[in-house]
Amino acid sequence: MSSVATPTPAPRRRGRRSRTKLQRRQTRLAWLLLIPALAVVAFVAIYPLAKTVYQSFTNQEFLAGITPTKWVGLDNYSLIWHDPAWKHAVILTLKFAVITVSFEFVLGLIIALVVNSKFKGRGVMRAVMLVPWAIPTVVAAQMWKWMLDDTFGVVNDLGVRAHVLSHSHAWISDPSTSLGAVAAVDIWKTTPFVALLLLAGLQVIPTDLYEAADVDGASKLQQFWRITLPLLKPAILVTLIFRTLDALRVFDVFYVFFGNRLDTQTMAIYIQSTIIGDGHVGLGAAASVFMFLIIALFVVIYVTFMRVNEE
Amino acid sequence: MDLAEGSNGKDVGEMKHRRLLVLAGVIGAIALIASLSVAAASSNRPAHVQQAAAVAAPKVPNAAAIRKKYGGQKITFVGDSVGNGHVRDVALAKRFTKDTGIKVSVTPHPAASDAAYSQLARAFSSKSSSIDVAMIDVVWPGAFAPYLVDLKPKLGKQSKLHAAGIVANDTINGKLVAMPWFGDYGILYYRTDLLKKYGYKAPPKTWADLFKMAQKIQTGEQKSNPNFAGFVFQGNSYEGLTCNALEWIASAGGGHMIDNGKATINNAKAITILDAMRAQVGKTTPRGVTSYQEDQTEHAFDSGDAAFARNWPYQYGIGATAGSKVKGKFSVTTLPHGAAGKPVGTVGGWQLAVSKYSKHKDATIEFVRYMTSPAVEKFDAITNSNVPTITSVAKDPAVVKTNPYLKPAIASVARVTRPAKFLKTHYNEASKVIYQGINQILNGTPAKNVLPGVQSKLNQILKQK
Fold it and tell me: Does residue B135 share a domain with residue B181?
């Protein structure tokens, strides 16, 4: 849009009013062309968000017609704010996001570097590495749930046979290992996605830079810190934004693994069970608004980072 | 994300378009195989389980008249998914379609009943006509009544055949919103051969006896079968745990969670029995029991990996069929009781309800008439060991012979009901508070740290009305 509407330096000196007819017509055309896109955004993003915010100030129930809906002001927000279960859900989700995103980033970067270098069978490697990511999350989660089972799970069986474990462990049921188990499955599943995004970033780095560095006698490690990492920064930021947002709204793996367990509720599960299970749409909407703000905070931090980086 | 992308030009040559397609194809195929094998594994039940369909489903009475009026209409039935339930539903629906020309498509609901509740709540709140008839839990009529058709005008007469207590439960503000289909109460399954082997003459009377026997049998059996467990039940954080916990607490004289409209769950007797259960997790019951539902319980017992199990009567039929590892080696009795109580069984059971938003209400009601008829209840009791809600069927000698839990000594056990009548539309929410709390206890938190919170939340919910 900017190329259409930005005035050339000369008319800018003469002020806004003196734009030429052509420029004004082009601006109008630009807006006209944007209207369909804006309408779609308004319909799929702004309307639901606004409706959620509105609902969060009411006592709306899921099975409408049972209780009349009325305005309750900030009651829902105060209930959520003081609910220890919500606090627990927020902390758990943040913990999960930090653990998974850091592991996925480090492992993904290593894998991306490996499949970016030249070796025989690289194409096959790139295909194989994507397999975990291609399996639907619910299916993968169910598969792992069985593999981690304490009576018939293959993980315990192998572990005990190899004398790594002294006895079968209930990885999912035991609260001390449940977060670790679910994080491991998420890392297994999503590392390929991170590797793919980083690989795309690596492929845009011109090879002549490395050639020049070789000529100058820079070691591989120096090349990584001085060339690869700085030039990969934009890709890294995009990857981190994607993954952090995904991790903060995680639902499926936790739901398959733990169902409605209290100590493993993420923000999304708390909201789902408040709205669908308990039927409190208003209360769930207030929690959704909190979740939206938490996620927005992360986006702001990342985007600021990216801007600083660009300058 | 294009893998072939590369500004330096060298990579572009290596990963051509064709290769990218092959790559995408390989990944897709592997993902598909993985997904299918997981899906197949979940339906990979032993062959004997499929036997329910072998006995012919009963004929539809008055079929010609029904065909004339409603033949060709299509209805959707959201039915059972636990045990043999789905096989039975399909067999009956097929017979009904064959006789009347009304097409019935059967969709199994989620195995956890609170998840099934959510599914129906979503359909009703969006006024969806995609569900015509659904099976609803004995604790739901109060919540769903505004969305259900009053069956009294057409099925009032037939409802008189059913146990009066259940019909009363399904009647909300004078409207019969659901027809009783099959009943349920918790019973104890035990291995007769193992009791004999370890020198026990009778099944346990108290929970303390059960734990002692479970420990002794487990220690002995684990020498040859490391997966063997003394006792299994439903400990997952879901509706089934509310049912199990109600039996523990009530049988220990600790009340019914909510009594006379006030939460009573936080009492000394409840704390004692819940802590006793907690102590068994990882000892005489598998550590993973806190994620067991009905199916996991049945699998453990019927694969010969458990000495005792708490479950609903449906498990009897699966264990007693040819091909089961415990056929002829197990029996049932009432659940044990605590020091200061008597044995009880939580009332469960399912009803059939017709959606207000159905486009074929009359055809659907004919289906419900068939499904809740004496002939079908007898069929269900004999092939699936489900408790008939029709009193005469429950006393039928052929039915009692295949379902020993119907013998007066077991069937007369005190039945305890979940506190739905105090909670009405808030039942699901309250039950979640209960089962989440109990699950937390089983997962290691002492009951005295959990129950006060559960009690105050329950009282809050009770005040909402």
Answer: yes
Residue B332 has phi, psi (to 5 degrees) of -130, 155
Where do the domains of chain A lie?
2-55, 76-310
Q: Does any domain span residue B325? A: yes
SS3 label, residue A296: helix
- Residue B10 in domain: no
Predicted pLDDT of residue A117: 87
Is residue B435 less than 8 Å (CB to CB) from chain A? yes
Q: Give the residues of chain B that fall short of pLDDT 70.
A: 1-24, 26, 28, 30-54, 465
pTM value is: 0.85
Candidate from A1-10, A58-67, B15-24, B110-119 with smallest mean pLDDT: A1-10
Alpha-carbon Rg for chain A, nearest whole angstrom, is 25
Q: Decide if B155 is inside a domain.
A: yes
Q: Residues B60, B86: one domain?
A: yes
Please tell me if residue A134 touches chain B, with a CB cutoff of 8 Å.
yes
Q: What is the pLDDT of residue B335?
A: 97
State phi, psi for B4 to the nearest 5 degrees: -80, -5
Query: How far is residue A146 from each of residues A85, A133, B42, B194, B353, measured CA to CA in Å?
Result: 28, 19, 10, 28, 35
Do residues B278 and B155 share a domain? no
B287 and A206 within 8 Å at the Cβ level: the answer is: no
Task: Count Cβ atoms below 10 Å from residue B295 Cβ, excluding itself.
Answer: 17
Q: Do B215 and B267 have their domain in common?
A: yes
Any CB–CB contact under 8 A between B110 and chain A? no
Question: Does the beta-carbon distance from A63 to B41 stay under 8 Å?
Answer: no
Given this model, what pLDDT does residue A16 score?
55
Domain A76-310 = CATH 3.40.50.2300? no
Range of the domain at B121: 52-185+348-415
Cβ <8 Å between B288 and A263? no
Shortest Cα distance, chain A CAs vs residue B386, angstroms: 27
Answer with the residue of higher pLDDT: A149 or B7: A149
